[in-house]
Predict the structure of Putative alkaline phosphatase D (APaseD).
Amino acid sequence: MDPSRVPLRIAFGSCNHEYAPQTHYDAIAAQDPDLWIWLGDNVYGDTSDDRELRDKYAQVLGAPAYRRFVDQVPVVGTWDDHDFGQNNAGEEFEARAQNQAAMLDFLGEPADSPRRRQAGVFASYDLGAAPHKVRVILLDGRSHRERPSVTADTLGEDQWRWLEGQLRHSDASVHLIGNGYQFLPEDHPNETWAKFPEARRRLFALIAQTQAPGVVLLSGDRHHADISATQQGPLAYPLHEHTASGLTHASGLKETNRYRVAEQYSSENFGMLELDWERGRVELRTHAIDGKLEVLHGLELAALGNPWYGADAFDAE
């Protein structure tokens, strides 16, 4: 990754069955992204057996299209439950450290990376220089996640402190916060931050208090693509979320989402964030797995609390 290169396109996706044909990477590469973000269920490990998990990663790593892809596009990522090792699991899953090592090997994480020494796969990456700068913040919503309840946590205190620093001490114009499962939707019975209401309120408050501009949430998990937005509590501007799922399989179902601001797309897909710095505009794009653009939702950087693009001063308390 060349951190000095002005970022124009960032691609992302999730839910990748390792034994399905791994041919979709050519269509993603054709969009010429500056970065690819794995958002979880990157393989369907569902195991505490290290050899079995690594064999599944090897299926992806050995696919010719993926080998071409990683030679062309920088790759980063986080995980969700199936590559973590167990459906809907959190801190109670005992093989999490072992499986973390396997995932970092899959991503080609350097041997001296802090991710090799910490408990959890959270990380951040900067692309470009201010005012044409994007900070990608990848959360680990598994390693320290408590069982869902009103007061349960998703991240653990060390990760919360780290996240605050990533937002507070940043000169980026756009902050992408990625996580395996959805942040905003709350109308379906499956996994979402809405099952952790205090943690979600804490996230909203942190975004407001740090005055981080241009925050866009990224997620996977749901086997369809969706774009949501809300402005509640202390948030100083509308908070958008782009869900991209899945790469090899999709639900084909329509799902209720009170926060939806663009059409749901229910076939295999990947997501793209495209930046037009000259016009001060961000486009959230959902692409079919063959590369065809299916959904486009445009945002103005000035409307996302961005002082470099004509926004008014923050009014969050």
User: Anything to note?
Assistant: The chain is about 20% helix and 25% strand.
